Amino acid sequence: MIRTAVITDVPVIQAMIRELADYEKALHEAQATQEQLTEALFGANPALFGLIAEDDATGEPVGFALWFRNFSTWRGTHGIYLEDLYVSPASRGGGHGKALLLELARIAVERGYSRVEWSVLDWNEPSINFYKSLGAVPMDGWTVYRLTDEALTAAGTR
Fold first, then answer.
1. Is pTM, for the whole model, over 0.90?
2. Residue 143 has what pLDDT?
């Protein structure tokens, strides 16, 4: 049901990223190309890792998780940052999302990582309830900040 992504998965990963962005009402922000994804996942120095959820009956990809390593200076260990987790609407409720998260937890435990973390939109109640059902807790008191586009360019050229 869950396997490591391979290079031939890139087109379906890109398509599902666009589906996810559309669901999150931000399709205009989904700009990643297949070439960029291929380089990040399978280039000389991969910085991104992927898992694919497959339909048990057909073997077709129905979801994905993209993640990278982070580091906790407080714990002194790496962790997993889950950038995206997506299951196609027709396959939701079939255990694919849970299987993806459990595989990430298994990888973290196997490698001695101290945590798996991610962000979720505050209006996404189905996902929030799902994450809580697995024992995940919100990091109250923390706010995500981001530099992009013109602000990033301005900061990076000072």
1. yes
2. 87
